[in-house]
């Protein structure tokens, strides 16, 4: 038998057919996470939990550990609070941007141009990437969970390659945005990229590797990939399409500022796009550090949330006593987490 529930995601809701066993696993993970601050509770919709389960082949212990690490990361990093003015300098060259067209399946398209890298800060580059991911999710239609990446290698050379940034990018995307990538198009990658790809691949999950497509403008068979995925009239000429408008930072900034205005409502309990089942409001500080991530036992004892520091890389953002503030979006304001 299967159970049908309205699958609410951070990008909308869609009908999701879950077997009774799968639904039971989703419910089990809810119990293991325990009470959460409001934004994290909204994040933990059935659909979001299902994404973590799919990423870990429906293994509850592994999926729970992965989800808790993300909850810890989101509590500290606050990706939904990043705004355009903070990262606008990273966007000036159009190295990453959300296109104004979707693919034929209605999925959001992120365009990436490695040769347009304009900053040296790994931390700044990752923060801009996270902003772009959150914005892409914000703009997904109600029946979609995944996006498309179009990676343009025009002008790319080894000087644009950073293994450190690549490793951190792979970690953030795989660990905190599971099952969000539909397909990544690598367009006209240079020949020397293939050895580099062999270095990068071990950092990617096998299912992620299979979503990567190499496309060459002089190869009719690979060009068909583009024709099958996109309306060629809307697709940029850089990818073989007929749109010559190109990237305009001024117009893009206007779009992003408008999207920023929509973000707070996106993370409000009354928002139909974030209809995770209501959870009791914690009556005391929620401890995000105290419980072992490797345990699959009941992690909700005493109302505490099992989330350790995990793979948090920017530990310098913690205060000296290893505490941080989590804005719960409630009348109580922020609460300190130790």
From TrEMBL:
<feature type="region of interest" description="Disordered">
    <location>
        <begin position="1"/>
        <end position="20"/>
    </location>
</feature>
<dbReference type="InterPro" id="IPR036273">
    <property type="entry name" value="CRAL/TRIO_N_dom_sf"/>
</dbReference>
<dbReference type="InterPro" id="IPR036865">
    <property type="entry name" value="CRAL-TRIO_dom_sf"/>
</dbReference>
<dbReference type="InterPro" id="IPR052578">
    <property type="entry name" value="PI_Transfer_CRAL-TRIO"/>
</dbReference>
<feature type="compositionally biased region" description="Polar residues">
    <location>
        <begin position="1"/>
        <end position="13"/>
    </location>
</feature>
<dbReference type="InterPro" id="IPR011074">
    <property type="entry name" value="CRAL/TRIO_N_dom"/>
</dbReference>
<protein>
    <recommendedName>
        <fullName>CRAL-TRIO domain-containing protein</fullName>
    </recommendedName>
</protein>
<feature type="domain" description="CRAL-TRIO">
    <location>
        <begin position="84"/>
        <end position="247"/>
    </location>
</feature>
<feature type="compositionally biased region" description="Low complexity">
    <location>
        <begin position="287"/>
        <end position="302"/>
    </location>
</feature>
<dbReference type="InterPro" id="IPR001251">
    <property type="entry name" value="CRAL-TRIO_dom"/>
</dbReference>
<dbReference type="Pfam" id="PF03765">
    <property type="entry name" value="CRAL_TRIO_N"/>
</dbReference>
<feature type="region of interest" description="Disordered">
    <location>
        <begin position="266"/>
        <end position="338"/>
    </location>
</feature>
<dbReference type="Pfam" id="PF00650">
    <property type="entry name" value="CRAL_TRIO"/>
</dbReference>
<feature type="compositionally biased region" description="Polar residues">
    <location>
        <begin position="315"/>
        <end position="332"/>
    </location>
</feature>
């Amino acid at each position: 038998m299967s159970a049908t529930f309205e699958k609410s995601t951070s990008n909308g809701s869609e009908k999701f057919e879950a077997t009774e066993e799968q639904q039971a696993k989703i419910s089990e993970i809810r119990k293991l996470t325990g009470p959460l601050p409001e934004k994290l509770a909204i994040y933990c919709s059935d659909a979001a939990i299902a994404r973590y389960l799919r990423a870990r082949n429906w293994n509850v212990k592994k999926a729970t550990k992965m989800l808790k690490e993300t909850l810890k990361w989101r509590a500290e990093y606050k990706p939904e609070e990043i705004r355009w003015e903070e990262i606008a300098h990273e966007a000036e060259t159009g190295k990453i941007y959300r296109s104004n067209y979707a693919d034929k399946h209605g999925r959001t398209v992120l365009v990436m141009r490695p040769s347009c890298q304009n900053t040296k800060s790994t931390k700044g580059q990752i923060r801009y990437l996270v902003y772009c991911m959150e914005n892409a999710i914000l703009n997904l239609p109600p029946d979609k969970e995944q996006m498309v990446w179009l990676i343009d290698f025009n002008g790319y050379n080894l000087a644009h390659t950073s293994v450190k940034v690549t490793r951190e990018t792979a970690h953030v995307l795989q660990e905190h945005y599971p099952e969000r990538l539909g397909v990544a198009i690598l367009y006209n990658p240079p020949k020397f990229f293939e050895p580099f790809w062999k270095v990068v691949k071990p950092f990617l999950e096998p299912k992620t590797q299979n979503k990567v497509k190499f496309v060459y403008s002089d190869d009719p068979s690979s060009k068909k990939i583009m024709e099958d995925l996109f309306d060629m009239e809307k697709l940029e000429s850089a990818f073989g399409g007929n749109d010559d408008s190109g990237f305009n930072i001024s117009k893009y900034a206007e779009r992003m500022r408008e999207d920023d205005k929509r973000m707070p409502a996106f993370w409000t309990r009354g928002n139909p796009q974030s209809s995770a089942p209501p959870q009791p409001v914690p009556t005391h500080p929620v401890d995000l550090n105290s419980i072992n991530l490797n345990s699959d036992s009941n992690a909700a004892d005493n109302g505490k949330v099992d989330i350790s520091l995990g793979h948090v890389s920017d530990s310098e953002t913690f205060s000296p006593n290893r505490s941080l503030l989590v804005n719960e979006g409630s009348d109580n304001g922020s609460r300190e987490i130790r």
